[in-house]
């Protein structure tokens, strides 16, 4: 397999690893109901005692615990075109979700959606961050971010660590902070030994660049 084949295979492996989708379809759900913190913990199938889940490959996350910060509540409709969303009911506080994998495992946050209630809301400064357990920022999105009140916004951090903290910085909206909500959180788990370190990705990228340069040089020489 050539270098392009290696990179392609790694890309396909990454796209196929996504597992549990938090749809916030929680049993006995009603607008403003306090969310059961067990939702999203150690998911092994399409439903459990708390609620239902989606998946894009039939593989779930039995070694990952999900913890929603603040006063986690659910709402059925009204946030863009999403249904059954999660928001933090504490005014002026951020939306946070911590995904923690068991020792020997990593969790990857693939993607998630945001929507606003009724009309667009703008997060002015740093809008989104994803940090690891050591506080290192792995993904960041600067503001202003206009969160749609008619459809929704989608984001794809695709970052991995033993623990990940997703923060939606809606605390900047003060009393309107609960007018932005989270939905469709897609994450996966992997054994730690099977995920290349960032330095490995750098070496692969360097190898690919060298390979491309050599091929271009060869083509120029033949010409």
Description:
This protein is of the alpha+beta class. Helix content is 17%, strand content 39%. It contains two helices and 16 strands. The chain has helices spanning 3-16, 198-222; strands spanning 20-26, 33-34, 51-55, 64-68, 72-75, 85-88, 95-101, 105-116, 121-123, 128-132, 137-141, 145-147, 153-155, 159-161, 163-168, 180-191. The strands form four sheets. Strands 1, 3, 8, 13, 14 and 16 form a six-stranded antiparallel beta sheet that branches. A hairpin with a 4-residue loop joins strand 10 (128-132) and strand 11. The radius of gyration is 20 Å and the shape is globular. The two termini are 26 Å apart.
Overall shape: globular
Question: Count the strands?
Answer: 16
Mind summarizing the main beta sheet? 6 strands, antiparallel
Mean pLDDT over the full residue set:
85
Structural class: alpha+beta
| Intertermini distance | 26 Å
Q: What proportion strand?
A: 35-45%
The percentage helix is: 10-25%
Low-confidence stretches: 1-16, 197-223
Order of helices and strands: HEEEEEEEEEEEEEEEEH
Number of helices: 2
- Gyration radius (Cα, Å) is 20 Å
Summarize the structure.
The protein is an alpha+beta fold and 223 residues long. It is 17% helix and 39% strand. It has helices spanning 3-16, 198-222, and strands spanning 20-26, 33-34, 51-55, 64-68, 72-75, 85-88, 95-101, 105-116, 121-123, 128-132, 137-141, 145-147, 153-155, 159-161, 163-168, 180-191.
Name a few traits of the molecule.
about 220 residues; alpha+beta; six-stranded antiparallel β-sheet; five-stranded antiparallel β-sheet; 2 helices
């Amino acid at each position: 397999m050539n270098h392009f084949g290696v990179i392609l295979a790694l890309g396909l492996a990454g796209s196929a690893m996504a597992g549990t989708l938090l749809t916030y379809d929680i049993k006995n759900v009603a607008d403003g109901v306090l969310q059961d913190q067990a939702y999203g913990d150690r998911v092994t199938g399409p439903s459990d005692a708390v609620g239902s889940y989606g998946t894009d490959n039939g593989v779930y996350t039995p070694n990952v615990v999900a913890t929603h910060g603040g006063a986690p509540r659910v709402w059925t409709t009204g946030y863009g075109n999403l249904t059954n969303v999660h928001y933090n009911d504490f005014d002026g506080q951020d939306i946070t979700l911590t995904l923690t994998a068991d020792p020997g495992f990593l969790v990857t946050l693939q993607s998630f959606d945001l929507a606003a209630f009724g009309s667009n809301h703008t997060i002015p400064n740093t809008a989104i961050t994803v940090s690891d357990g050591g506080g290192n920022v792995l993904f960041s999105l600067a503001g202003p971010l206009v969160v749609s009140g008619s459809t929704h916004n989608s984001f794809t951090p695709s970052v991995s660590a033993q623990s990940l903290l997703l923060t939606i910085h809606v605390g900047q909206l003060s009393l309107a902070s609960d007018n932005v909500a989270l939905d469709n959180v897609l994450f996966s788990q992997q054994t730690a030994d099977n995920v290349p370190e960032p330095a490995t990705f750098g070496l692969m990228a360097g190898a690919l660049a060298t390979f491309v340069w050599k091929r271009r040089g060869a083509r120029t020489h033949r010409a």
